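pls ignore typos typing on phone
farnesyl diphosphate + seq
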Amino acid sequence: MTAKLLQTLPADLDRHRLPKHVAVIMDGNGRWAKQRGLPRALGHRQGVEALKDLLRCCIDWGIQSLTAYAFSTENWQRPSEEVNFLMFLFEHMLRLELKNLQADQIRINFIGDLEPLPVSLKAEIQHAIDVTANNQAVNFNVAVNYGGRGEIVRVCRQLAEMSQNGELHPDAIDEALFSQHLYQFGASDPDLLIRTSGEMRLSNFLLWQMAYAEIYFSEILWPDFDRHEFHLALSAFQSRDRRYGKVNQTPS
Ligand code: FPP
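k done
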């Protein structure tokens, strides 16, 4: 995030029908690097630049919340050098970008089980959350050591314990209560999920919260996902008919 000129919303997009919350599965960093004969780490490094551009775009175009899948519970199974590099990158970027997050009024939040992360990264995460807590422009959520099934099991365990302690009657458990026990990201559920690199899977991302998200798959590798590609994703989103299981009321 750097000093910038406000880029206006492309004329063909309707500002009243933008997604309030966009989620992204940033896939293809490794392939981007491989295509260039570079180490995978450089793909991830370039992926951060794409993420910063997307955040900038959300600010400019008035999209309130962005949630990015940065590290899944399954990603620990990657080679240790790659895992260590990603942990280093998260910490380094947080330290480097905090001033810019502040300047751009971005509120950062993390979802996932942060406990197993390196102590220094956890400290940096908590510091960034605290410093940006009152920012208003965009909610930026980073999913780290996140898994959708694990999140659902965690809620079940919390509710079961409450029930066992007599604090909660099983009849009181409904979707709203369940949602209150999920990781909180200061936003309603995602309206639009974008996954890059041609892969067409959810990969354990926000399984509960994606119930009614529109899903957009892009062939572009994440480091190449730019403002033009985001524009295409938003155009596709605006062409969708979101019925939430109902029938469309407009006469055909
Ligand atoms: C998936 O591509 C990408 C990741 C597992 C890491 C994404 C992380 C970032 C872009 C860094 C975000 C940084 C901050 C500070 C939030 P892949 O490695 O699976 O690519 P491949 O499928 O081509 O191998």
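The domain at 20-147+189-238 is CATH 3.40.1180.10 (Undecaprenyl pyrophosphate synthetase). The mean pLDDT is 95. more later
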